[in-house]
Design brief:
152 residues; Tetracycline Repressor, domain 2; mainly alpha; two-stranded parallel sheet
Length: 152
Amino acid sequence: MSLYFYSVREAFGCFSNFSPHGFELKGKFWPTSEHYFQAMKFEGAEPEEKIRNAPSPKEAANLGRNRAFTLRPDWELVKDSIMREAVLEKFRTHTDIRTILLDTGDQEIIEKADHDSYWGCGKDGAGLNMLGKILMEIRNRLRMETLNSNGA
């Protein structure tokens, strides 16, 4: 059975990068994983701080898609690892949503993003669903960390 998510206002909304679950990473506080992900697209303090301080994840996303700043040359190579880093820290920081993620068992997690066939499943459902795959990977990693910390 598959579990679908998209909006922060719907079931499993905490899986969205727009969910208001901030965390600290690289010595700074990030209001959402969307803020972190979008800021990492660029080199330099100016775009990073502008995005980090955006008033909402939607504004952070808009700033990250704006090409007023130069996209880092290795972006396509590093974007998955940056997303993984943000999602991991988000779920390590917040025990309530970590529990929700772990309680999904072995269900397939799919971002129902009709407009995004890379991070989501796309309009036809045949997208790569990379965010869902990263969530499942993080779920397995957190499960192992929990087992190890309990002395198993």
